[in-house]
Amino acid sequence: MLPLPIKVPLQIPGLGEEEKYDPEAHEFVFMVDINRCIGCGSCCVADKREYQVPDGQYRTWVERYLITVDGEVFVDSPKGALEGYPEPRKVEKPVRDAFFVPKLCNMCEEPACVQVCPVGATFKTDDGFVLIDYKRCIGCAYCVQACPYGVRYIHKKKRTADKCTWCYHRVRRGLLPACVNACPTGARKFGDLRDPDSEVSKILRSSEPLFVLKPDMGTFPRLKYLHLRQEVI
């Protein structure tokens, strides 16, 4: 696995450990700038170390897109980009565009996974995080099937549903998610929209267009993408 470029935990501006965390006082958003992602896999390494994710399963991963001159799309993600992309993918046709797209939980405003859970193990917090109560989860996989973004899986060892949580345990302590902390190019951005000085607030107020995955699903993701290509949407 690739070494992490950043080892010092970075704090969320305006939110520190000394603050008594109030879920209703925050509105967090995750943004990914496609133009900045280099497919290094540092985010995946950080996530695996933070959660001891079993081999072959991923809470976050990075996909590589190759677009040929005639519009054909090739997508791959060897080992979820855990080891980056050291080898170029060979295609028979000339390539006109290539880019990387990180994937993780979309933290939907209207999460389909919450609706289908028969035991209430998947729930939404007051600050908008979609989480799993592992003690209540029965591993039925209804939520896995319901998620339109393919970010859920049944943990090989725990036999319960699992997914990215945007590092909720870190956020409540005023720290950035592990993957954001590890990103060497600033492709992953996380912040509080209630803070007008946060980077995400400034981006939202700018003319920079933001996109979400599968907008027709009506889930209203809080994961936003900058410079997302039409081939991905």
From TrEMBL:
The keyword Metal-binding applies. The keyword Metal-binding applies. Gene3D superfamilies: 3.30.70.20. Keywords: 4Fe-4S, Iron, Iron-sulfur, Metal-binding. SUPFAM superfamilies: 4Fe-4S ferredoxins (SSF54862). One of its GO terms (molecular function) is metal ion binding. CDD domains: PsrB. InterPro entries: 4Fe4S_Fe-S-bd, 4Fe4S_Fe_S_CS, ET_IronSulfur_Cluster-Binding. Residues 96-127, 128-157 form the 4Fe-4S ferredoxin-type domain. It comes from the Bacteria. PANTHER family: PROTEIN NRFC, PROTEIN NRFC HOMOLOG. This is 4Fe-4S dicluster domain-containing protein.
